[in-house]
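During data preparation, a discrete fold description was generated, and the record follows.
___
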Amino acid sequence: MKNGLIYFGNKKEIIKRNLLAGISRGVGIGIGVTLITAILIILLQKIVTLNIPVIGEYIADIVEIVEKSK
């Protein structure tokens, strides 16, 4: 296993290991993006309820633009 000798092993094992690693990365990225998006949405909702004038107007403009594009 020293100096990258793992790549000279059984090709089926290498393919299986890389496939499992790719699936794991994909699932991890999906879960991470979902959590970060949910946290951002919750934060934006809290900012809107604080009724801060500048930020509230900006978010209201964004919502209006999105509703017009439907």
The radius of gyration is 23 Å.
